[in-house]
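Support reply, case 0932

Customer input (verbatim):
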Amino acid sequence: MTYEEARAEFPVLERYAYLNAGTLGPLSRRTIAAMEERNRFDHELGRGGKPWFESVLELRARVRERLAAPIGASAERLALTRATTDGCNIVLSGLDLGPEDEVVTTDSEHPGLLAPLGASTVRVRVAEVTRRPTAEALETVLAQVTPRTRLLALSHVLWTTGQAMPVHELKAETGLPVLVDGAQSVGAIPVDVGELDFYTVSCQKWLCGPEPTGALYVRDPEALRVALPTYLSQQSIERDGSFVPRPGAARFDFGWIATPELAGLEAALDGLPDWRFERAAEMARRCRAVLAAAGFDVVGEEELGTLVSFGAPDDPAEDAARAYAAGVIVRDLPGTGWLRASCGWWTSDEDLERLVAALAG
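Our regenerated output:
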């Protein structure tokens, strides 16, 4: 599939310069068609009966397999969720950490991770990495680790600056369990979970799947308690509520996901081009260059992946709204004074030109 053919798959690009996959990725024609076809299928079979339920289980199994491969995991270690937040809640509740335990995170985490941390009883130590060079991130996070540290919980790619955190190096240096928020990495940059313990996936972003869809990688499912069980967590259950968990990470499946969304996700995963990472990285570099040449204060360093944050000309929320009215979709980052452009493999030079023109107008 050529770039032109791949770009033509997204109807939204006929109207907008779509630079907000860090929130929600664009939906392709094949994804939309798969969702509509599955919706009709469900209606015709009445969402009941053995053949229909078997088709649902088969669909979930296929999606699980397809999601595991891009992160270097086996399907048996992957749970289906609705988003990264689900994964963070599953892990933090299942580890049974208490008030004397510490978790180290960073000062640039999304509420999808921060809120579960805040709702827990653990002590949270924050490494201030946002305004430091990426090369100092490892040392900065390690400085917050103490004998009471029981978990490192941080993003692979920070949602504010696009900085890639040294998650594998942190695991190697500390030997501690690591929970990774992969919302801005999976689908945007190459990912291999390697020795990491927990890795969340947000499928509605860079994988261009429908919402709400997500996944959670669990390296050792037997070692994590099922603290938030759903019907899908058990393979047998007694009248007193005691149950035998399903094998592998499927015990953490976070409830029902509508079949049209699963069908759309399967189609989206099948439609990802092999050259997506190189193209997205190149467009991010061009975006940074174009914005800098136009006089915008671009945040951070050159090699930061696919997110490009920059100082807003005026009020960030109003600037984002003005850009939208001009046919350019970016987002403002609350409390920072920044706008953020998400550069995907579908991004064109014309999109970047439209971005600068929309903000200059």
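We compared this against your earlier run and they match. Two observations from our side: The longest strand covers residues 149-155. Residues 8 and 14 are 8 Å apart (CA to CA). Please reopen the case if you see a mismatch on your end.
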